[in-house]
Amino acid sequence: MPKTAPTRRQVLLGTAAAASALSWPRATVRAAPPSPESITPQLIEAARKEGKVIWYTSVDLQVAETVSKAFQVKFPGIVVRVERTGAERVFQRIGQERASNIFACDVAQSSDAAHYIAWKRDGILTPCVPEDVAKHFPTQHRDADGRVLAGVAVRHRLQHEAREGGGGTQELR
Fold first, then answer.
1. How many H-runs (helices) and E-runs (strands) does the chain carry?
2. Longest pairwise C-alpha distance within the chain
3. What is the pLDDT of residues 20-45, one digit of tens each?
4. Exposed, middle or buried: residue 34 (CB in 10 Å: 0-12, 13-18, 19+)?
5. Which of 12, 100, 130, 165 has its CA 20 to 30 A from that of 139?
6. Which residue ranges form the domains of the chain, and what is each CATH number?
């Protein structure tokens, strides 16, 4: 049987079938968010043994210092070392440190939401839903699997309370 070249119609049908297969909705499998975690005496004692928390952040320095001081007042014996720089530098620094097997950062905050997408994709975010977040943050401001929290809402709220004379630390529990 001699081979014949595909007809124009066959090529168009094949192309259309391939395009529709590529655009077919894909099933997304997500892990359920972890159960809310409370701050236990065991957790506080383990943190005190470590002695410090390193926070890479791009928030305003005054906000970062306010949060740091409030944390240290609530949890004496645990020092918060704030590493404040621009969002792109936070992202770059974490990437460079991880490539060198340096894991200095305990808490990361970036004002660029795209960084969280990359960190989540690379599997470097630990799932965690603090009890207060589960109680006070609407679901739409939390990641479905407990890896990301909308930080802009937190920062705006702190700045608003500071302007209103609330001191900015009263909401920190």
1. 7, 3
2. 88
3. 555 555 545 566 778 888 889 998 99
4. middle
5. 165
6. 41-163 (3.40.190.10)
* 132, 173 contact by CB (below 8 A): yes
CA dist., res. 22 & res. 24, Å (int) = 6
The Cα 87–Cα 73 span in angstroms is 27
Are 130 and 36 spatial neighbours (Cβ–Cβ below 8 Å)? yes
Residue with tokens 């302007």: 163
91-95: Cβ within 8 A, 24+ apart: 91/115, 91/118, 93/56, 94/56, 94/119, 94/124
Dihedral class, residue 28 (left if φ above 0, else alpha if ψ from -120 to 50, else beta): beta
pLDDT, average across residues 143-147: 79
Q: Residues 73-117: pLDDT tens digits?
A: 999 999 999 999 999 999 999 999 999 999 999 889 998 888 988
Q: Kindly tell me if the per-residue pLDDT of 153 is higher than 50.
A: no
User: For residue range 40-83, what is the model confidence (pLDDT) as tens digits?
Assistant: 999 899 999 999 999 999 999 999 999 999 999 999 999 999 99
